[in-house]
Write a structure and sequence with these properties.
This protein has two domains: 12-96, Winged helix-like DNA-binding domain superfamily/Winged helix DNA-binding domain (Arc Repressor Mutant, subunit A, Orthogonal Bundle); 105-309, 3-Layer(aba) Sandwich (D-Maltodextrin-Binding Protein, domain 2). Helix content is 38%, strand content 19%. It has ten helices and eleven strands. The strands form three sheets. Strands 3, 4, 5, 6, 9, 10 and 11 form a seven-stranded mixed sheet that branches. Strands 1-2 form a two-stranded antiparallel sheet.
Length: 313
């Protein structure tokens, strides 16, 4: 018994050619409509007929008309053309529709004092990243502290550590956040005995819990351990920030905090290097969306070009 060979369609243009021959009354009309020569049309129709094993057209001097077998294929070809047309219309619609919202995840402090003011262009004061780099309209933005739910996350880790992510995730290092001990001027006037970094252990300290997990802040966390009876631990950076400007104690703030907060000043004593690595994290699937990829690249450039996020200051 002879095994029947399965036919596979490799080129949508063969379907278009079949339709054109039927709708333009023959091979010459199809050749003219499709911008082909008649010899090419004849050869490609002959190839289809060889694959089917039956004639698809009755050839006459006046043109060509479909055979019964040809009519069966034409019915399917018209259905396929309708599907292709819908597919193309859907692609066009996706290209022209407004981009979806893009969510950005980061710590409360980074969102509140840097990312939101810059990206929403709501700040009238200088910022550590340059908002003039925003040269096109941004997509609709939402912000969250739930990093695992964000399209793009800005993540802090200990120096030398990589964010603990897995799967098809793009991770890019974009700089270093440097921290300095800071307090309200009124607090420093009342506590003039600070001559060295270790003296801070004898002062009321304001602890932001998220920093305890960063090994590269161990010098600061060691002071907190020695100052337990005088320190206050607060769950968010906003509350810690409020406690500092109210003169309740000393905390560490990013080295660029003077851009957004004039009510706290750097304590002028030699201090160990207090820093954390800064990363951009996004899933590859979301980066295929142009609005997400564009914002990912923009954020990377903003941080990388800023002098405030370099290895050394």
């Amino acid at each position: 018994m002879c095994e029947m060979k399965t036919f596979s369609l490799h080129d949508w243009n063969d379907v278009r050619l079949l339709l054109a021959c039927a709708e333009h009354g023959g091979f010459a009309g199809a050749a003219s409509a499709l911008g082909l020569d008649q010899t090419t049309v004849s050869r490609r129709i002959a190839n289809l007929e060889t694959a089917v094993g039956r004639p698809l057209f009755n050839r006459r001097r006046s043109g060509a008309t479909p055979t019964a077998v040809g009519l069966v294929l034409l019915e399917e070809a018209r259905s396929l053309r309708a599907l292709v047309s819908r597919f193309e219309e859907t692609m066009t619609g996706l290209r022209t529709q407004p981009p979806d919202s893009v969510s950005i995840g980061a710590s409360e402090g980074l969102l509140t004092y840097t990312l939101i003011p810059v990206l929403l262009r709501s700040s009238v004061t200088p910022q550590p990243i340059d908002q003039t780099l925003i040269r096109t309209e941004l997509p609709n933005l939402t912000f969250t502290t739930a990093l695992d739910r964000a399209d793009i996350a800005v993540v802090l880790t200990s120096l030398g550590d990589v964010p603990p992510v897995g799967g098809a995730v793009r991770v890019r290092r974009i700089g270093v956040v440097h921290f300095v001990p800071a307090a309200a001027p009124s607090f420093l006037r009342d506590n003039r005995a600070i001559a060295a970094f270790d003296d801070l252990a004898d002062m009321p300290l304001v602890d932001v819990g998220v920093y305890r997990s960063l090994r590269s802040l161990d010098a600061w966390n060691g002071l907190l351990a020695r100052s337990d009876d005088r320190s206050v631990s607060l769950p968010t950076s906003a509350l810690a920030h409020k406690a500092v400007v109210e003169g309740r104690g000393i905390s560490i703030l990013p080295s660029y905090s003077h851009f957004y907060e004039r009510r706290a000043v750097r304590i002028d004593v030699p201090a160990p290097d207090l820093a954390a690595s800064l990363w951009l994290v996004a899933h590859e699937d979301r980066l295929r969306e142009p609005s997400v990829r564009g914002l990912y690249d923009l954020l990377a450039r903003m941080f990388i070009e800023s002098p405030w996020f370099r290895e050394r200051q």
